């Protein structure tokens, strides 16, 4: 089984937002990725709208529908709605993404930096997981290596997404081998509990292959920051094809 590649377009939105206006255009970027063979599109709108915004979510959901690929919407279901941000569940009700990935990130965080504590958060997650499942969304929960993933299965999630930030850091420091066993063990525990496994955060062309070789059964990787950065040098379509070459056959 090859892992599928969902391209996160948040960073294109950051560039666009830095000047206002519509360029670079997220819909064009999504089409470019999909025509290059990407299996899906991911965005993670934040309540402060510093990346993708409500209108982006609607437009990208439409593009994914038109291409027959999965739209993966990420967000914190507990973040309160505010002007310009309807709230994660309301957004899911509006666009019914193929996959809703719940992430416990606060406004103050620069980026996502940990998974859920399923023992502590399980009770309040459960009704939201059920609500999203009733909308027809596959529900994936952001999870740290070593977390109690059986509890994620017990509250009705269908997948976990392994938070790979610590792996990327260890890889960059030359000691990926010290953290990979925990990721592999968590993936195996997820699979035993009936959960499929996604992975994401700071994955790159440099570190992706070693991760997929060591961690069994990863079904999808969502990649944005490194991919969009690499695309500045090599072009978006070429970069997506390079990621596809890495994931294929693993
Ligand atoms: C859950 C996750 O890891 C991604 O959604 C990541 O947060 C995207 O990157 P930015 O936070 O830079 O948008
Ligand atoms: N879920 C992870 C994601 O969408 C992309 O994370 P990153 O590659 O931007 O760090």
From TrEMBL:
Instruction: Tell me the name of the encoding gene.
Output: pdxJ
Molecular function (GO) terms for this protein are: pyridoxine 5'-phosphate synthase activity
Subunit structure, briefly?
Homooctamer; tetramer of dimers.
Tell me what this protein is called.
Pyridoxine 5'-phosphate synthase
This protein's source sits in the domain of life called Bacteria
What is the reaction catalyzed? Answer: 3-amino-2-oxopropyl phosphate + 1-deoxy-D-xylulose 5-phosphate = pyridoxine 5'-phosphate + phosphate + 2 H2O + H(+)
Per the UniProt entry, the Enzyme Commission number(s) are: 2.6.99.2
Q: Where does 3-amino-2-oxopropyl phosphate bind?
A: 8, 19, 202, 224-225
Organism for this UniProt entry: Luteimonas kalidii
**What Gene3D superfamilies does the database record attribute to this sequence?**
Aldolase class I
InterPro entries referenced in this protein's UniProt entry, alphabetically:
Aldolase_TIM, PyrdxlP_synth_PdxJ, Pyridoxine-5'_phos_synth
> Key word DNA-binding present in the record?
no
Sites marked Transition state stabilizer: 161
Could you say which protein family the record assigns here? Belongs to the PNP synthase family.
Q: Which residues bind 1-deoxy-D-xylulose 5-phosphate?
A: 46, 51, 111
């Amino acid at each position: 089984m090859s892992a599928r590649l969902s391209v996160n377009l948040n960073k294109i939105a950051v560039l666009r937002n830095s000047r206002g206006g519509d360029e670079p255009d997220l819909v064009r970027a999504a089409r470019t990725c999909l025509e290059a063979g990407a299996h899906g599109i991911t965005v993670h709108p934040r309540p402060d709208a510093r990346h993708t915004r409500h209108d982006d979510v609607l437009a990208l959901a439409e593009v994914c529908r038109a291409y027959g690929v999965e739209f993966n919407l990420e967000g914190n279901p507990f973040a309160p709605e505010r002007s310009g941000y309807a709230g994660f569940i309301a957004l899911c009700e509006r666009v019914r993404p193929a996959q809703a990935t719940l992430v416990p990130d606060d406004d103050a965080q620069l980026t996502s930096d940990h998974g859920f504590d399923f023992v502590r958060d399980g009770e309040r997650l459960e009704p939201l997981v059920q609500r999203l499942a009733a909308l027809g969304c596959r529900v994936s929960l952001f999870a740290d290596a070593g977390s109690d993933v059986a509890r994620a299965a017990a509250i009705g999630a269908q997948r976990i997404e392994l938070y790979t930030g610590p792996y990327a850091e260890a890889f960059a420091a030359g000691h990926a081998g010290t953290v990979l066993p925990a990721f592999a063990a968590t993936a195996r525990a997820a699979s035993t509990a009936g959960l499929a496994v996604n992975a994401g955060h700071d994955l790159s062309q440099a570190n992706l292959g070693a991760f997929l070789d060591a961690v069994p059964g990863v079904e999808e990787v969502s990649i944005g920051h490194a991919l969009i950065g690499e695309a500045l040098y090599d072009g978006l379509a070429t970069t997506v094809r390079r990621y596809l070459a890495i994931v294929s056959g693993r």
